[in-house]
Each structure stands twice: as structure tokens, then as C-alpha cells.
Sequence to fold (368 residues):
Amino acid sequence: MSSRREFVFAALASVGAMAGLPSCSSETSADSYATVAERTWRHGNVAVGDKAALLHELVRYATLAPSSHNTQCWKFRLEDGAISILPDLSRRCPAVDPDDHHLFVSLGCAAENLNQAALANGLKGHAGFDAAGGDALRVVLEPTKPVASTLYQAIPERQSTRGEYDGQPLTRQELDLLEKVGAGDGVQVILLTERQAMEKVLEYVVQGNTAQMNDPAFVAELKQWIRFSGDEAVRTGDGLYAASSGNPAAPTWLGSRLFDVFFTLKSENDKYAKHVRSSAGIAIFVSDTPGPAQWMEVGRCYERFALQSAAFGIRNAMLNQPVEVSTLRPQFADFLGIGKRRPDLVVRFGRGPKLPSSLRRPVPAVLA
Ligand SMILES: Cc1cc2nc3c(=O)[nH]c(=O)nc-3n(C[C@H](O)[C@H](O)[C@H](O)COP(=O)(O)O)c2cc1C
Fold:
């Protein structure tokens, strides 16, 4: 984040505050961003035997999963002994995700959190793709011995950390376990830790980012999901809070204007170069077959990778431009030597400081 940009944001915000401009001073929502974030990212406990409360709590854990642009593009249908995760197509992002690939991957991430939380509460989840049920993932819950796994314990710790990392390598054991937990049915993880290979990936990221930033539909869609102020992030409970990406928060009227000035190709591509060069490695998730069922499995695999990373104190962030730009994806697949398989996600990882966490809508808002 260039200091000049921070300086301008801060200067204008304080001038606004002094001039008594609306929402330039401290946040106006009942609860501050920090309070809501703390309330969101925590373990909970449910009274033994309270089935209804337990199902709600499992949904709450599922919603702590990552989703593209933090759209939270999911709905949960509660049944006696089962929870179905359905796509919420009103939260599609057609510019960045025209075939809903990311949308279904996000549902898979939610399903993995649900399964880990269910097991910690003595329920084994059996997930099955349910095309007739609206392309849903139906998770049947069977009583079993409770196990609070390492992945479950890491759920409140996990985040997408879009900052600089320390550039230090991971141990062989850490890399082997990440590769193992990130693999699944028709899904493989390719770990790149050689600088030369990571620089090659960076070239694809810059190419893809250039294409996306020259696409007005992409920029408009992205901007629509940005929450410039903590107030706005609290009010909507979704979207990309500016501070979660290492950008200074600002009142929406100001942030929106400054975005148009400072969201430039050069500054963004320079940022990605710094981020990749500060990372320990890049993980690429690859899948065998196209379609919602496989993409949900990719999501489950990525979420296990992200939770195991969090358990190790390792951060991660997505760099999906090479797989989002449809003209670039086949070239990227050739570079990876994966034949007809699809590269689904590009994830950099390494150790570094946390950033402010993203928020979530309350459980009642996501029940079908
Ligand atoms: C399928 C998928 C694609 C994503 N693509 C990107 C991306 O290209 N760039 C990025 O910075 N974050 C990406 N994210 C991360 C989301 O923006 C992030 O999960 C969301 O903002 C919630 O924040 P959290 O992960 O810290 O809880 C993606 C997440 C998912 C599940």
C-alpha cells in the first residue's frame, strides 16, 4: 500500500471530520467494526440436546468460510438430521465468475467448515451433491464420538490475508501436510516454492490483472462489493472491507471517489509483485472434471488447506487472475503441464501479520 495513498486518505478523512462532514468522524453504527468482528470470529457452544440451536450453530460455522468477494453466496436449508447448502444466485458475480465456478467453490468451503464443526459436536457429516435439490450439497448428520479436530479449532483463526509475508520458507513437514489435506476426490494441489516458478506465476497474475482492470464490468462489479468504511461493513455484513485488504478505511462518499483515483494498474501490479516475492510459495488447486459437484469438492479441499495453514500460523491469499481470465486459463494450464484439467485456484502462502477480519451476515439472513 503506497504511503502517499494512505496519507491522502487520512488527510482528507480528518479534514472531513474537522469540517463536521457526515460519517467522517467516528463510526455511527451501534456496534463498532472491531466489536462485531470479535463477536463473529469465535468458537461457540450449544446446550447439549438443543438440536435446533446446534443446527444454527453449525450454519454459523459454515458461514465463516471464505467466498469470492465475500458475497456469502449461500443459503442453508435445515432438515431433521441434515443441512443442505444451496447456491444463492442473487449474489452471483458474472463479470469475474461467468460460469459460477467460484460460487460453487465457495459452497464447498462452507461445507468443510460445517463438517468440521459437526464432528466437534458429535455428528459425522455425509455430504452428497443434490442436483434435484437445486444444485445443493446435502449434508446428512449421523451421531458419532465428538472430535474437535485441529482444523475445527483453527476456524476462527483463518482469514484471507492480503498483506506482505516474511518470505521465509516452510518446513518440508508443513508443505507435505498442506499438500495432503488439500487433496481430494478429483482434486490435486501443486505447490510451487522455487522462485523462478513463482515469478512465472506472477507474470500470469499481472497479465490477468491487466485484462481485468481494463474491463469496466469487472471494475464496477468489484467496486460494488467493496465496503470503504467500517460502518458500511457492519451494516451489510458482507463484501470486501477496505481495511481487510490493507487499505485505509474512509467514509463511503470519500472512499468511492478515492478508489477511482488510486486503484491504478501500476499500483495494483506493483502490489502483486511485492506480495508474491514476500511469499513462501504458491499452491494451485487443479481438478479433473468440470461442474458444480467437482467445484464444491475443490472448495472443501481449499478450506482444509486454509484451516491447516491457520493452525500452523501460516497466512494465505488468493491470486486468481490467471484462472479467472478465460483466454489466459489454457495458457496457464499449459505452463502447469496439467493437460485438459482445470486450474481452479491460485493461492500464495507464508507467515505474516493478520489484517482486520471480514464480517458475516447473521444466520437468520442465510436460512432458506
Ligand atoms: C472461490 C474463491 C475465490 C476467491 N478469489 C479471490 C481473489 O481472486 N482475490 C482475493 O483477494 N480474494 C479472493 N477470495 C477470498 C475472498 O475475497 C475472501 O474469502 C472473503 O473476502 C472473506 O474473507 P476471509 O476469507 O478473510 O474470511 C476468494 C475466495 C473464494 C472462496
In short: Residues 66-70, 102, 105-106, 109, 159-160, 162, 240, 317-318, 320, 358 surround flavin mononucleotide (CB under 6 Å). The mean pLDDT is 93. Residues 115 and 272 are 33 Å apart (CA to CA). The beta strands are 74-79, 82-87, 123-130, 136-143, 187-192, 226-227, 240-241, 281-287, 315-318, 342-350.
